[in-house]
Amino acid sequence: MQPSSHAQSEPGEPVSADVLDALEQERREEERHCPGACNFLTRKNGRGVFVLGEPILCERCMTTLRNELLAIDTLAGMLAAQDDGHRTSTGSDAAIRAHRSGTGRRSPSSVVDTISELESVLRGHMRLKRPVAHKLGLLARPVTELADWLASNLPRYRDDREALIPLYEDVRRWHSRLVKMAKAGTALISKPLPCPRCRERGLVQERGSDVVKCTSPTCGKMMSARDYDDLAAEAAEAAAAGAEPTPVRKRGAKAPVAEAS
Ligand SMILES: [Zn+2]
Ligand SMILES: [Zn+2]
Which of 11-15, 22-26, 79-83, 216-220 has the weakest average pLDDT? Predict the structure, then answer.
């Protein structure tokens, strides 16, 4: 009897105890790996060293979860503010119109719908650990309260695989969804250069504001629009220099973009 030849056994075929033991051991080994984004490449490539969970998610992924929960609140607030600027009717009126139109186009009410969907997702996670919180999340700013409660009660989820992993996955999904929506809104201008601190492409400028900020939750870098323009000019210059092997322009010469504004 060679257990390894039975690893891919036909359904219905009896499986030996050895194979079950081996599979069980493999499953236990996998359970020690952090299921978060830190192991994404290792999982994808099928090689490398897995980051271990502490006990489920690693410390870094727990921090990401916490930061993104707090960022979700800010992003939902930004979306709601954008939405207010776009419509004159009440949220429920807009929601009714959206149901009637049924075209799937982005309408003002999509923000209202999105935020109430987010609320029920967060509330579902909260209920696992706080089943009797009748009042929480039913007041003026439900997302704020729910995200706040979840962020400060993460230790309750930390050791509970069934509760923690769905929470982590939902928060990651919702965070990136809200970032995309917030950038797509007219009140925010997405800047093309990567953030000088975290190198992610998450810089945005609110229309009419002189501040450019990084939306990456672990970074949050802020700079003046003027500083950003200087960076953009340097980047343009570097790109031009890279394109021509023998640059004729004098070093230190400013590109015209820097002089604008
Ligand atoms: Zn991790
Ligand atoms: Zn950044």
Answer: 11-15
Q: Is residue 137 very low, low, confident or very high in pLDDT (cuts 50, 70, 90)? A: low
Q: Is the pLDDT of residue 238 over 70?
A: yes
Average pLDDT over all residues of the chain:
78
DSSP 34: -
Q: Which ligand is nearest to the CA of 200?
A: 2
Please give the span between the terminal C-alpha atoms of the chain, in angstroms, as a whole number.
78
Ligand 1 centroid, distance to 73 Cα (angstroms): 23
pLDDT at 93: 40
Residue ranges with CB less than 5 Å from ion ligand 1: 34, 36, 38, 51, 58, 61
Q: How many other C-beta atoms can be found within 10 angstroms of the C-beta atom of residue 67?
A: 18
Q: What share of the chain is helix, strand, coil (3-state, %, to 5)?
A: 60, 5, 35
Give the pLDDT confidence score for residue 135 in this predicted structure.
60
The sign of the dihedral angle between the CA atoms of 95, 100, 104, 106 is negative
Distance from the alpha carbon of residue 5 to the mean position of ligand 2, in angstroms? 50
**HSE toward the beta carbon, residue 206, CA cutoff 13 A:** 12
Q: How far apart, in whole angstroms, are the C-alpha atoms of residue 100 and residue 94?
A: 10
Q: Whole-model pTM?
A: 0.55
* Number of residues that this document lists for the chain: 261
Distance between Cα 37 and ligand 1 center (Å): 6
